[in-house]
Structures are given as C-alpha cells and as structure tokens.
Amino acid sequence: MKENDKLIELQGCPYIIGHYGDDDNVEDGRLPEAEVRYFTPLILKGLKHIHQHEYVHCDIKPDDSLLVSSSSDSSLIKIVPKIADFGLAERLKKEVKTDKPVYLKGTPSYMAPESICRNEYKPHSDIWALWIVVLEMLTG
Questions:
Q1: In whole angstroms, what is the distance from residue 53 CA to residue 10 CA?
Q2: How many domains does the chain contain in total?
C-alpha cells in the first residue's frame, strides 16, 4: 500500500513502471553494448523524474529495471526500461541527527559507500547503483 501511494505520485514519466501486480520478472544475461547505451539514458530520465519529485529510490538494481514493450502507434513496438519496486523509496529530507539505530535500506552490493557508512540516501546514491547495473548489463 505504501509503495502504491509512491507510484501514484510518480506517474506521468514513461520511464517509471506502473503497478501491475506482485509477480517477479527477472531478465538474465548480458545485453549488447548498443542496447546498454540506449537503455541507460532512459533509466537516468526515470531517476531524474523520481529525484525531481523529491524521492530517492534507495534500491536500484537489475531486478528493478524492467524492459517493457511499448508502442506509440500500432506499427511500431519498442522496448523501454521502466523503474519498478518503490517499496524502499524515501522522500529527500534535510540532515537530521538522531540517536535512533541505523538500518540500511537497499541491496548491499548496489549501495553507495555513503549509504553504508553514514546511512545517507540522496540522488547520487541512486546514480551509484545505476552504474553498477550498467556494468552488469554489459557483463551479465
């Protein structure tokens, strides 16, 4: 329910996934470099949209970058990336010092060093994770 609320607020960008249920769709393997060069700027546009709405995704990883068929007319079908899984997304906020315990958000192998060391989640943390995704798109 919390994720649905975030998704509703973030709609309006063709690079943000709508909610289609709770099934997992995982794509294995490496992509040709030309496709990675095509998909990466589109994912960046999706992240820009998220960040402009003052959210940080907090868990960018291959499982949350879905490739979806899209068509602008009936004769042209293309594949576009869509960012999914907003369950850990957080509103950007000003730094607040607290004595509360620190809980990491996200998948550790995609987390930026400042997220792990200082529990800091900002737009650049999503960009760090995206570059790891790009590497995995190229290498499988």
A1: 7
A2: 1
d(CA 134, CA 138): 6
> Which domain range does residue 76 map to?
2-139
At what angle are helices 123-139 and 33-52 packed, to 10 degrees? 160
Does pLDDT of 118 surpass 80?
A: yes
CATH number, position 9:
1.10.510.10
The two beta strands, 55-56 and 65-73, are unpaired
Tell me which residue of 38, 35, 37, 57 sits closest to 46, measured CA to CA.
Answer: 57
Residue tagged 């000003």 (tokens): 94
Is the confidence at residue 100, as pLDDT, over 80? no
Q: How many CB atoms lie within 10 A of CB 60?
A: 28
Question: Which tokens is 115 given?
Answer: 């997220």
Compare 52 and 74 and report the one with higher pLDDT.
Answer: 52
The DSSP bridge pattern shows strands 65-73 and 76-83 to be antiparallel
Q: What residues are labeled active site?
A: 59
- Residue 63 scores a pLDDT above 80: yes
